[in-house]
Amino acid sequence: MTAVQAVLLVLVGVAGTLVALARDPLRQTILAGIYGLTLALLFFALQAPDVALSQIVVGGVALPAMLLLALAEVRAREQKGDDE
Questions:
Q1: How far apart are CA 15 and CA 81, in angstroms?
Q2: pTM score above 0.70
Q3: Distance separating the N- and C-terminal Cα atoms of the chain
Q4: Structural domain boundaries of the chain?
């Protein structure tokens, strides 16, 4: 294992821990995106560029986008319920 791989492995562990410890859903979403990108960097360092590209699309873009849209919908419904 190279030093770059070891550092990226530690970063993935730290990012995953931060996602699990975050309480605010918006903060969790942002950290989940960062976690996905660090995981993609680890895959790239492990010489799996095809898996890394898939991880960037899914873990770095699609999942955070869906979560942000869901959070916006929940907050809009909460605000609509408060107005009534």
A1: 35
A2: yes
A3: 59
A4: 3-83
